[in-house]
Amino acid sequence: MKNYSTLQIQKEKDVATIFLHRPEKKNAINIQMVNDLTDALDTIEDTKEIKFLILRSKESLFCSGLDLEDVTSKNPPDIYGFQKWEKMCHRIENLNKITIASIEGECIGGGFQLVLLCDIRLATTRAKFAFNEVRNAFLPGLATYRLAKYVGLGKAKQLMMGDSLDARDALHWGLVNQVCEPENMLEIIQQNLNNHSSLPLPAWTLARRLMNECYSSPYENFLGHFLAAQHRAINLEDFQKVAQQQQGKK
Amino acid sequence: MNMINKNKIQDFVYPENGPRIVSIGTANPGTRYSQEEIVKLYHETNPIIVGLFQNSHIKHRHLILPEPVNGVMPEETNEQLIAKHRKGVEEFGAKAVEECLNPLNLGPRDIDFLCCVSSTGFLCPGITARLIKKMGFRENVHRIDILGMGCNAGLNAINPVVSFAKSNPGKLGLMVCTEICSAAYVYNKTLNTAVVNSLFGDGVAAVLVRQDNADTWKKGPIVHDFESHIIVDSIEAMKFELERDKLSFFLDRDIPYVIGLNIEKPVTRLLKRNNLKLRHIKHWLVHSGGKKVLDAIEYNLGLTDYDVRHTLHILQNFGNLSSGSFLFSYKELCKEQIIEEGDLGVAITMGPGTTIETALLVW
Predict the structure, then answer these.
(1) What is the CATH number of the domain that holds A56?
(2) Which one, A208, B25, B178, B300, has least CB within 10 Å?
């Protein structure tokens, strides 16, 4: 794996871990980090051996949000950095791997946006979630599109106005799947890796895509998408193996 | 100069120059009908057939249909259908060619190679000869008629035009896809014909191809590479059949899924040979074969409705235009004015054989 100025990347067997790494800026997301993430995703996507991608941080915080210095450096400000960010987010959301976010400490703004993209979201008891964008008079990206799907419109509005959530609330609201003490996080991650080690990736990515689309497709369109996805699934090797096993049992 | 895209894809060798699609013209014959209007015209009451029309994801199509006589649509004879095809290809072929050539201040006499495509009627002398007579192309224009290959034929046909342009820099190749689908329109109230009649529309598209060192990406994309795929196990899945004395197109219901299962093969070969990944392709120009086949392509290639938005638009507003459909999608893409230097595109057409044709476009 390559070295990046804003990320540290580890690969162990079928697990790639991306650590956000700008400790001097509390892991704030700048355009360099967006470029680095995009480049790292290219490698991870192309490496067949990798089954899991974990997003985390080595610091006692996950991410303090978008780096406002970076966002406001252009006068007049332009939209292209945000466009790049959204493109990268879309890549994570649809990556051909199982994605896990592991959150410790502050998880603000853009960091919170990253968490919403992941399949499994794990937090320590010290995690704290908030969107700071609207308070800073700009918008929290396509969290405006994703957040309400997790928590419903009412709670989404509450969060977008800047209310913060601790880990327990985030668990109750369905934003994270599990909460643990900081010292237990590695164990919890490992449990999740073990639990999903035999999950067939093609079927998972198809199911995930359908679920991500289900709020925005009319029923007839969605049915067509489902049939296309199901036809692909039942013709892939994973399902053929299951079918053969069933035949063997008979 | 914007080199951002070029720097991005490290392993792809960008061609310095090559045969480019430098202009496009289209024409839609006949009258624009809504699906409901067609159901009413034919007094269709069978709920299954009415459902086919309603659920086709098509809103409008252009068709050349006869006038009702005493409120009833007259049955068209074979002679009438052949005449309709001939009149349609001549009249609307000429319109599309004019729309293609006029912006470049070119005329038929400037064309060195003429290729005409049709699967909706058989003419001898062929469409090239008829367009040459009607429009005044040169008497020594090279020509080729490609007949009966079906919806995929636009890419099969542009291949020799591109080869001609490549081996004759500066000379002009013109391809015209002339599909008068209403001339292959058999109405006998059966499900087989209703599937086809609810889907196909009339449309003609012409594209000009030339290799000229003065042309840049702004003129149009280089047609850089082709890859084909034929699934002979499904040779009977799309075909002309005789419905009494008339040819009628037949579509097997499994075809969208057969295409879906096979679509990765040619696309992967095309991209791999050029050291490309799916994520490098910014523009997808897919034949508007029908909603199911588009769903299958989307889910097997990992494309979104946004990726195939031009094709969905063409399907909704024009239906399946057979060989010229992907060129209508290309025209929609051009209208958006979002193309940048170094962008890559893949064109995909599907048809009888069962065939999938693909081409790599480089701006």
Answers:
(1) 3.90.226.10
(2) A208
Asked whether B290 and B56 are in contact (CB, 8 A), the reply is yes
* Complex ipTM value: 0.88
Q: Is residue A16 located within the same domain as residue A78?
A: yes
Query: Do B23-210 and B217-362 have matching folds?
Result: yes
pLDDT single digits (tens) A49-80: 999 999 999 989 999 999 988 877 777 888 88
Task: Confirm whether A2 is domain-assigned.
Answer: no
Residue A179 lies in a domain: yes
pLDDT at B5: 46
Phi, psi of B213 (to 5 degrees): -65, -20
Q: Concatenate the DSSP letters of all residues of B207-251 into one string.
A: EEEE--TT--GGG--EEEEEEEEE-GGGTTSEEEEEETTEEEEEE
What integer is the mean pLDDT of A79-102? 96
Nearest to B281 by CA among B221, B233, B355, B323: B221
Topology of the domain covering B23-210 = Peroxisomal Thiolase; Chain A, domain 1 (3.40.47)
Chain-chain contact of A227 with B292 (C-beta, under 8 angstroms): yes
* B295 chain-A contacts, CB cut-off 8 A: 224-225, 227-228
Domain holding A60, by residue range, is 7-195
- In words, the CATH class of domain B217-362 is alpha beta
Contacts of A225 in chain B (CB under 8 A): 295, 298-299
A237 in B contact zone (CB under 8 Å) = no
Structural domain total, chain A: 2
Is A133 within 8 Å of A64 (Cβ atoms)? no
* Direct distance between the N- and C-terminal alpha carbons of chain B, in angstroms, rounded to an integer: 13
